[in-house]
């Protein structure tokens, strides 16, 4: 159970650093479905499976929150990806943005 919580926490933090909040909807659905399918394959009762699914969902969201807060603390442009323009960047344009 602890491994599941840590894995979804790290996944949520990685997603929070890169994506907007709407990414949580499909990722949470995938995480919950994965937990339920694995629990069914192992023959687990529905109570512990639902608890694991809820913990995975909550830790994913908490990780997303931590990743978003970490993104706010980083310098601008660090997680923005490649520039969208094709013109070469000069030293003055790098420092002005």
Characterization of the model:
With 97 residues, the chain is mainly alpha-helical. The chain has one domain (2-72). Helices cover 71% and strands 0% of the residues. It contains four helices and no strands. The chain has helices at residues 2-18, 24-41, 46-73, 91-96. Helix 2 (24-41) packs antiparallel against helix 3 (46-73). It is elongated, with a radius of gyration of 18 Å. The N and C termini lie far apart (44 Å). The model has no long low-confidence stretch (mean pLDDT 84).
Q: Quick recap of the structure?
A:
The protein contains four helices and no strands.
Q: What form results from the Cα inertia axes?
A: elongated
SS field, number of helical segments:
4
- Helix/strand structural class: mainly alpha
For the biggest sheet, the summary is:
none
Strand proportion:
under 5%
Radius of gyration: 18 Å
- Count of folded domains: 1
SSE pattern: HHHH
Distance between the termini: 44 Å
**Average pLDDT taken over every residue:** 84
